[in-house]
Amino acid sequence: MVEEMQMDLRTLHRYGGDGDDDGHGDGEDEDDVLDLDHIELCSFMEQIKSAVQLVRAALQEKVMRMTTNTRGGGGGGGGDEAFPSGSGHLKSVLESLDPQLKQCALCLAVFPSGKAIKKRLLIHWWIGEGIVRSAAAGKACFQDLLSRGLLQPAMLRPHCHTAHYCRVHPSVRDLLVAAARSFGYFAFDRDGEPTDECLPGTTRRVTLCRTRGSSRHGGGGGEYVTVYNLSQRYVEMDEAWLGEQRGMGTLQLGRWQTSPEHHVEMVRSGGVLGAAAAAACRNLRYLSLRGISLVESLPESIGDLRDLVVLDLRACHNLETLPASMASLGKLEYLDASECYLLDQMPHGVCKLHRLQVLKGFVVASSAGGKKIPPCRLADLAALPLLRKLSVSTGRQLPVAPDDELPRLHGCAALESLSVRWGAAAANAAGGGGGGGGRMDLSLLPRLAKLDLQRVPAEELQEVVHPARGGGLRKLCVRGGRLRAFGDDVTWDVVETLRVRFLERLDCEWRQLRSSFGKLRFVEKRRCPKLSSWRCDAQGIWRREEDDGGDRN
């Protein structure tokens, strides 16, 4: 009976899958999070699940004690002293995990309890170490840890039922620290905090933990599978040491925290990954420089990382160029160069990454000559058959994407999620969309389910994009820009979720909106002063099932 109740709760806890999750567990922008009524519901669910697990574990412990007494044993229990007292039910849950899921759980021991952790970063870590072979497998493990109560959902969003963030409860972390220490998974001090010690033979994972000053990593001999930056602000890697790490799969030098306030700086920008280190680290599958300052370029030796699956360069604000050798990263599935504001083009070799599924931060280069490296154009991305998620920026100096760019996205037949961000020059330009320079025809993108438009330069949405009649577009988000109207006599019959933000000029009556968007189920508005007639609550949210009026009125 208890088992059946627990299975039912696991089914409830597997969120509805209508989120914006790509295969790498990535949702929407990190600033797009709200804790509303979903938090309370999930809290109740977690309490019920924990109670069920506690009852089940208590019954199991009682049976074990009876069995032990029958055998006349007291005896030590084979290592029970490694676990904190009073954690029998949690220990039972951990011991019930299969080897793969247990390794995933032990990775959580290094994170502070209660802090929000991005699901995508966990999955990428697991891919790097080879614990999971694909992003889909990592996502399944994440959901399983949630359902068992070893993870708790965090920073849920009102428009999305999928958990993109999680946190570890203090009692769970105490258990994980004890288990990770006993298995030699990480090095911890007496208080259970991770240390940056890397003594050979004790652990195969190194954590960077110094918040003051810099240190030259690493020390000691031996090979390691992971180097993970937990709190190091100034990073300097020893190239000779890295050159010995032939079995390393995960190299997370950037920040894992969601807030950009956690600053990371590369002490020696030329030492990101030199030729010798890249030649040695051929098994590296996950490399993250996320949020690191003073990285102006990547070395050509990056092309030697032939097994690399994930390359995270998000928010490397000093990054100006990407090397042509990236064309050699034949196994790359995930490339994030978003918030790298000094990038003005993508190397043409990007279109040769035939396994690429997620590409963030693609920069539409200007048509001006003098480019040292031939840029990759949007039309070239049609050569990527697996590309499902794409974010595009028109760059700093490009007012509107040229006519041969945005309209040619129709070649990306597998595209499911698209984000387009016009540069500041476009947002501040006088007039509308610029003579069709940013026009797209969504009827040629049949699999597109989500569209996010930022700093729209047009005054009417139909000047930028046509409604996808008969298509699969379910989610539309418009943030910032000159938009005044969605367009006269235009219907968006398939859109179910509409989110508008920072549109001071947008003027649309509620009745008109409901007529144009006939299948709306969720609406969110923020800082749109002319939309006072919209039937949203105090948080700017409207849900169809909660609307007392019920229909289009």
Automatic annotation (TrEMBL):
Keywords: Plant defense, Repeat
Domain Disease resistance protein winged helix: 110-175
A Pfam family it matches: LRR_14
Keyword check for Repeat: yes
Ranges of residues in domain Disease resistance R13L4/SHOC-2-like LRR: 283-421
Biological process (GO), any one: defense response to other organism
Superkingdom of origin organism: Eukaryota
Protein name: Rx N-terminal domain-containing protein
Organism per entry: Oryza meridionalis
